[in-house]
């Protein structure tokens, strides 16, 4: 399997199965493990320095979410990007985040707005350094923190469980979409700072609504990922 995976920390508070899952999930989302990559329980276990059981558990969880394909007597592989899965993820995420913005507009305190502004400053740095991984992580943090500051952390948990299929497509689009995404984050924050719930909801809808454009672009430029 390529590329190599780093050994896990036996003293980490999360279980080994969770750590294996997190490691593989992140690499599937950022396309370090692209669609079609073969995965071997034995090889992953050896590279991560764990037994095969936590790897088997992580493989099962990833297969249930549609990220890997486990087929008896055949190689386990990273699943292709699914347009249907992206559309389902978009529907769930858009509905929950629009509702969240209306709550956030009345619940966020000045300290929260300052913290969100700091994330955008760091995103600007990541964009300037062409750090796609850092930019994507800060994108997640921005949306996550709005949910948490609004008292709606449970909403983000639902979004996170479903958004991975969107994330693979959005990550590939960062080569041209990152500046627009950052500008739209500023639009969201401006509306929240003004206490405009409807404006913030409209801004996040615009922000997420590029997914059809991204799918069309990928189908033209990288059809092999589907």
Automatic annotation (TrEMBL):
SUPFAM superfamilies: GntR ligand-binding domain-like, Winged helix' DNA-binding domain
Keyword terms, alphabetized: DNA-binding, Transcription, Transcription regulation
Domain of life: Bacteria
HTH gntR-type domain: residues covered: 14-81
InterPro entries linked to this entry: GntR_C (IPR011711), TF_FadR/GntR_C (IPR008920), Tscrpt_reg_HTH_GntR (IPR000524), WH-like_DNA-bd_sf (IPR036388), WH_DNA-bd_sf (IPR036390)
Name listed for the protein in its UniProt record: GntR family transcriptional regulator
Organism from which the protein derives: Roseinatronobacter alkalisoli
């Amino acid at each position: 399997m390529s590329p190599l995976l780093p050994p896990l920390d036996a003293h980490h508070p999360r279980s080994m199965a969770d750590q294996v899952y997190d490691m593989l999930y992140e690499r599937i989302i950022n396309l370090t493990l692209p669609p079609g990559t073969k995965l071997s329980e034995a090889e992953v276990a050896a590279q991560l320095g764990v037994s095969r059981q936590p790897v088997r558990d992580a493989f099962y969880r990833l297969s249930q979410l549609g990220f890997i394909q486990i087929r008896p007597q055949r190689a386990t592989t990273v699943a292709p990007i699914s347009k249907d899965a992206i559309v389902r993820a978009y529907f769930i995420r858009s509905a929950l985040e629009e509702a969240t913005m209306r709550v956030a507009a009345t619940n966020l305190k000045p300290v929260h707005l300052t913290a969100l502004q700091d994330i955008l400053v760091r995103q600007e740095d990541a964009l300037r350094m062409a750090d796609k991984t850092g930019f994507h992580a800060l994108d997640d943090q921005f949306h996550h923190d709005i949910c948490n500051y609004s008292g709606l952390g449970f909403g983000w948990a639902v979004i996170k469980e479903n958004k991975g299929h969107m994330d693979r497509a959005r990550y590939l689009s960062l080569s041209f979409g990152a500046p627009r995404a950052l500008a739209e984050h500023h639009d969201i924050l401006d509306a929240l700072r003004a206490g405009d719930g409807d404006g913030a909801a409209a801004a996040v809808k615009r922000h997420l609504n590029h997914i059809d454009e991204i799918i069309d672009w990928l189908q033209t430029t990288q059809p092999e990922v589907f």
